[in-house]
Amino acid sequence: MRRYEDFWRVTEDGLVYGASSLGLELTPARRQRLMDSYLSLAAFPDVRPGLEALEVKTFKPDPPVYALGPARLGVPTAQMGFVSSNSCDINGATSAGLRRFWIQRSGAAPPEVLGYNTDRVVSAITDLPGLLRA
User: Fold this and answer.
1) Count of alpha carbons within 13 Å of 68, Cβ hemisphere only?
2) How many CB atoms within 10 Å of residue 11?
3) Which superfamily does 63-133 belong to?
4) Helical spans, DSSP H, in the chain
5) One digit per residue, pLDDT tens: the chain, 134 residues?
6) Which of 4, 79, 109, 134 has the most CB atoms in a 10 Å sphere around its CB?
7) CA Rg, the chain, in Å?
8) Is the pTM higher than 0.90?
């Protein structure tokens, strides 16, 4: 989304989101202990040199992916809608300027805290036709 954060920050954000979505209390001490555990994970021998050779400082979702629909269909980006049940994809679509419809299947699922909002939140895909006709 052209908002690069290093892997450590993305990992911590994922930990916070996961704990929140599971309703788990993540005290500062627990958070630190879990983050520290990432420093001792074993990796396959090819991982480090492979990642060093491939690093481009971008993570999914990258805006060019979301630009494919409007470009291929010849529709202005602001008129293209994007539907997903994954809030991370909604954030990516927002960063690319698309209209967003988040299917939040569980009312308990918290949105990811990335500073983006969605246009509409629905609980099922069957809620979409009425919104699109309006």
Assistant:
1) 6
2) 14
3) HAD superfamily/HAD-like (3.40.50.1000)
4) 7-21, 28-37, 47-54, 63-73, 87-95, 128-133
5) 677 888 899 899 999 999 999 999 999 999 999 999 988 888 888 888 887 776 756 666 788 888 888 988 999 998 888 888 887 888 888 888 898 888 888 776 666 666 777 888 888 888 888 887 65
6) 109
7) 18
8) no
Q: Are the beta carbons of 120 and 98 closer than 8 angstroms?
A: no
Token reading at 120: 């509409």
The residue written with tokens 């008129």 in the block is: 79
Tokens for 42, please give them: 């074993």
Are 103 and 85 spatial neighbours (Cβ–Cβ below 8 Å)? Answer: yes
Is residue 84 within 8 A of residue 93, CB to CB? The reply is yes
What residue ranges do the domains of the chain occupy? Answer: 7-54, 63-133
Neighbour count for residue 115 (Cβ, 10 Å): 9
